[in-house]
Amino acid sequence: MRFRTIPGLSLATSELSIGSWKTFETMEFDDIVAVIAACFDAGINFIDDCRYGRAPGVPGGIPTTEVIVGRALREIGRPRQEYAIADKLWWDQYPRLSLREQLLKALRRLDQEYIDLLYIDRPDRLAVAHPELTFDYEKLVVSIAEEMAALKQDGLIKAYGFANSKPEAIKRIFSIVDVHSLLAPAVAQIRYSLVEPEASVSPELDALHLSHGLMLTATTTMAGGILSGKYLESDAHDGGRLSNKQSELDGRSMDIARSLAALASENRLPATALAMSFPLQNPAVASVVFGARTVNQVKENLRAQEVDALGINAEILALASA
Q: What is the Cα–Cα distance from 205 to 235, expressed in whole angstroms?
């Protein structure tokens, strides 16, 4: 496993990380333990989790992902200093609950004393969560940065960042924290795939990486499963969720998926591995977050680290601009 550095974290983090998503709510607990343990055994030391809304079809009474992850970590028993946890706070409970109050509740659900990396949903989405509220964007960013500095001072977090990031939003945030000499975010979590390659060509993010050490964490690298190749299969058109998804896919995305599948076949690697290797070509990417239901899926995703040695990075990069 290769590792990269996130400002503020004492632990170098694995360039691949396991995300709970809503998936864990629909899995057997023993399978969750097996997946996380397989990640640890492979050198992955970065876990991405948060409070999600309950997954569709999950009956009442099933613990939410933070509770599940906390229990799984206790079951595995790996020393806390050997792994990092990222968690997220949304705007749905704000301002009824402050960010500190939300974090304390998350820590209780996870049964943890601190979070290594705390993401905040990007500030403009407060208006989406609460259209009835009026707020000053700059004051909100200042308030977030001040509260994050206090949480860090109290040992409740090591660093913070913003989820659902857009390059222009991150640039605006940095301009505010710089003017007020406040604690800057260490990470921007951003959608980053061959279908959505904007982060790879963003001058704003490149400049912030060079000037402030900003790192990125890449999500949705499979573009909703498109790049795994599963929608290229003949039975993907047969009824249910897959046919509904198929109808939403645009021609460019499917063309990229076909080209990626062909390149993967030539190199005897799964398409998922090639897709995940794309953001890893960017030195500003700290980690690629993936999901897995089985140990075999973990092993398949780990093969993303084999791509560099094949000399096909330029061919993969070219697919993003096709």
A: 40
